[in-house]
Design a protein that fits this description.
Number of strands: 16
Largest sheet: 5 strands, mixed
Helix content: 40-55%
Oligomer: single chain
Structural class: alpha+beta
């Protein structure tokens, strides 16, 4: 399994100048390649792709020797990034996503990420050495803490965030072999309750979402309003902008820290080796009736609460020999988990009340449906019958479903 470790570096003034000059060359390569693609698109010229632009790099270096200071793999990855940006745009565009936008030019005020893929780097004796050819120096060298040790490194990226420089190391991490112990835990993700889970034994768990962004949002809005009334790039504008970015960074870090700790706690404390989560369509969740809802969209996407949390949960589970499986959660919160009847429920209604006598929390109802749907679709009938029996012991009047009934009940 591949993991990524972020390490902050503290370059000297000379090293920082070199990094910015290398970044500028990468930025220009990206913008030149983007211009070529736009020009060929307007004229209907075909055949301009990553491979054709990569093959032209030696000619470009011969014509403009200044680009020789950048390691060749770094320039190739810049072109690969542009190609990935275009593929992502066209994939969304073909699906009819009206918010899809083509790649834009990179501004010189932002540091361009440099990626050393496969070669051009060396990690030894607590130092990271990056190959470059600026001012006859063959490498840039940075110290890293002794606690970071990597067996096999695939890629190293250099980037800037909040005026600090970082190195991102992609390395191989040994994962434990998965063994199915016959225990399962289904999780319904939400905004108010980030976790609503039920296990094979019929026990429920709910964890509130801390939402530190709600604390910071009024403060950020206030300082942003003050900043917008100042002349742009003035001394006061720069001071307020710096404070605003600091608040945003603090909010984002608190959310990320909460997600890391929670995902680790869930993986370590559950006896189930299989964790089931809903297959989230995060972009659609921020809409109501096809229209973007500002508060809902901010809670789901801007804070990275749901999509990122699933990624954290997945890789932490793999490390300890567990697995995270996704299953469709289409209408799981609107279907009664006992009789299967569908109810039209607004998001403000948090309790499922059905004619069959079932009355329970909406999120708990959804987690039961996620568990039942996964077990029935994968033919785990023994585990399904045990799960239903455990639910009946807790007072939930769930029906006993045989294999054919359960399959047709959940697949519609």
């Amino acid at each position: 399994m591949k993991l990524t470790q972020q390490i902050r570096i503290k370059p000297t003034k000379q090293q920082e100048d070199i990094l910015w000059k290398l970044s500028e060359k990468c930025r220009l390569i990206y913008n030149f390649a983007l211009t070529e693609r736009i020009y060929c698109w307007d004229l209907g010229i075909k055949g301009i792709n990553y491979y054709s632009q990569q093959n032209n790099l030696p000619k470009l270096k011969k014509k403009y020797p200044d680009y020789k200071i950048v390691y060749s793999k770094v320039l190739q990855y810049i072109l690969r990034t542009l190609d990935a940006d275009y593929k992502s745009f066209f994939a969304l565009w073909k699906k009819g996503d009206k918010d899809a936008k083509p790649p834009k030019y990179k501004g010189k005020e932002h540091f361009t990420t440099m990626v050393y893929n496969q070669s051009g780097f060396k990690v030894k004796d607590g130092k990271i050495r990056l190959t470059q050819y600026y001012d006859k120096q063959q490498h840039l060298e940075f110290d890293i803490p002794e606690k970071f040790k990597f067996d096999k490194i695939y890629q190293i990226s250099v980037y800037q965030k909040d005026n600090n420089f970082y190195i991102s190391v992609t390395y191989e991490k040994q994962e434990k072999e998965f063994v199915d112990n016959g225990l399962y835990q289904a999780i319904d993700l939400g905004i108010t309750n980030i976790i609503t889970a039920v296990n094979s034994r019929g026990k429920f768990l709910q964890i509130k979402n801390k939402r530190p962004d709600k604390y910071w949002l009024p403060k950020i809005k206030k300082i942003q309003s003050r900043r917008d009334h100042c002349k742009k790039k003035s001394r006061k504008w720069n001071k307020l902008n710096k404070n605003m970015n600091k608040m945003k960074r603090k909010s984002a870090n608190q959310i990320r820290d909460f997600q890391h700790k929670l995902s680790r706690k869930i993986v370590d404390n559950t006896k189930a080796n299989t964790i089931i989560v809903g297959d989230l369509a995060v972009k659609k969740m921020g809409r109501k009736g096809g229209v973007k809802k500002r508060g809902l969209n901010r809670a789901i996407q801007n804070t990275g609460t749901l999509g990122r949390f699933v990624r954290f949960l997945t890789y932490k589970a793999k490390i300890v020999g567990k697995r995270v499986k996704e299953t469709s959660e289409y209408k799981t919160s609107k279907e009664c988990c006992c009789c299967g009847k569908e109810w039209e429920m607004d998001l403000s209604i948090r309790t499922m009340k059905c004619d069959c006598g079932n009355e329970m929390d909406r999120d708990e109802n959804s987690s039961v449906n996620i568990m039942t749907r996964f077990l029935s679709r994968n033919g785990l009938w023994t585990a399904l019958s045990e799960f239903q029996a455990n639910l009946r012991q807790t007072g939930i009047p769930i029906q006993v479903l045989h294999s054919q009934e359960a399959s047709s009940f959940r697949v519609r």
